[in-house]
Design goal:
The protein is of the alpha+beta class. It contains four helices and five strands. It comes from Haloferax volcanii (strain ATCC 29605 / DSM 3757 / JCM 8879 / NBRC 14742 / NCIMB 2012 / VKM B-1768 / DS2).
Length: 84
């Protein structure tokens, strides 16, 4: 799985009071379903679907490390990095 530098920073050294807006790319429909469940269990939300299969999610920075452990994810990047 590819993690952008800002996502690796959030995973390794999260800020307690910050919310992360992330673009997540699941590998397939099963991974997308698992992503929805994981984000909801972490207290986050799915904000919108993007063209070509990406999904914008938001969740507290301390939960980013748990999201990064999910199988079936091809990449996680910050929304701001990609200019969405």
């Amino acid at each position: 799985m590819y993690l952008s530098h800002p996502v690796r920073r959030m995973r390794d050294d999260p800020l307690d009071d910050e919310v992360a807006a992330l673009r997540v790319e699941p590998a397939d429909d099963d991974a997308r379903t698992a992503l929805e469940s994981r984000v909801e269990s972490l207290g986050g939300s799915l904000e919108r679907e993007l063209q070509f299969g990406g999904i914008v999610v938001s969740l507290a920075e301390p939960a980013v490390s748990d999201l990064c452990e999910l199988d079936g994810i091809e990449r996680i990047e910050t929304v701001d990095t990609l200019g969405y």
